């Protein structure tokens, strides 16, 4: 199975070029086999890409912009869906590929389409708040200690000022 990335090599849009570079760079870095197909120089590629992006995935103007990603004939998504899959660490599922054997997601996909590692990842996400709570509690403790020290320092300064003021007051009382 070959991943097809439809790009426009002569795009005038910097945003499109950056998105294309990010997709291609990620696939290269992760040694995922892919084929880069230029829609700017090849009318057949452009037509095929436009015809095979599902209607609900097309923008309002009806013309999908590169990069568009396919696994053979199967539509995977555009840059935004690629980016989301990358952020959620489900890129192999997004691309319709089996994870490499040395990755955590190497277990077989189950009926729900999730691998064991993805389910574990979901469970880990559930544990994040516990870790965050622990960090927040520790942070609150540190914050409380800092506040106590600041308060003690302020109280000490206030007491010194009071003593100084008290020292002057008795002298004033004696004069009256």
TrEMBL record:
Keyword Transcription found? no
Per the record, where are the segments of Acidic residues compositional bias? 135-176
Report one GO cellular component: nucleus
Region Disordered: what ranges? 94-176
Gene name, please? SH3BGR
Give me the stretches of Basic and acidic residues compositional bias. Answer: 104-122
Keywords assigned by UniProt, alphabetized: SH3-binding
Domain of life assignment? Eukaryota
Provide a Gene Ontology MF annotation, just one: SH3 domain binding
Q: Which family does it belong to?
A: Belongs to the SH3BGR family.
Per its record, how is this protein called by name? SH3 domain binding glutamate rich protein
Is Nucleotide-binding among the key words of this record? no
């Amino acid at each position: 199975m070959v991943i097809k990335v439809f790009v426009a090599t002569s795009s005038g849009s910097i945003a499109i070029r950056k998105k294309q570079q990010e997709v291609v760079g990620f696939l290269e870095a992760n040694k995922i086999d892919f084929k880069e197909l230029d829609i700017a120089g090849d009318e057949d590629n452009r037509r095929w890409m436009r015809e095979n992006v599902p209607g609900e995935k097309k923008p309002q103007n009806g013309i999908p912009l590169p990069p568009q990603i396919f696994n053979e004939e199967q539509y995977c998504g555009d840059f935004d869906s690629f980016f989301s899959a990358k952020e959620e660490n489900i890129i192999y599922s997004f691309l319709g590929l089996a994870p490499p054997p040395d990755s955590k997601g190497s277990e077989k996909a189950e009926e729900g389409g999730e691998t064991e590692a993805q389910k574990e990842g979901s469970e880990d996400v559930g544990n994040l708040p516990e870790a965050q709570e622990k960090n927040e509690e520790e942070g609150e403790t540190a914050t409380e200690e800092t506040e106590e020290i600041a308060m003690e320092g302020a109280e000490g300064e206030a007491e010194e000022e009071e003593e100084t003021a008290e020292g002057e007051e008795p002298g004033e009382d004696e004069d009256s």
